[in-house]
Specification:
This protein is an all-beta fold. It has strands at 17-19, 25-27, 35-36.
């Protein structure tokens, strides 16, 4: 899901993720285990991949 991510004071570094071999990051916070490319948000629309 490509949703614009805004870099502002509400964006904070997170835990509960790891980088995959193909360059994506996987969110490990919920059972969906979203696999995100740069600029994408997870199904929760709360977590996103920035830098």
């Amino acid at each position: 899901m490509d949703v614009p991510l805004v870099r502002d004071r509400h964006v904070v570094p997170t835990r509960f993720w790891h980088r995959l071999e193909d360059g994506r990051v996987q969110c490990d916070l919920c059972p969906r285990f979203c696999r995100l490319r740069e600029g994408q948000r997870g199904l929760c629309f709360v977590r996103g991949a920035l830098g």
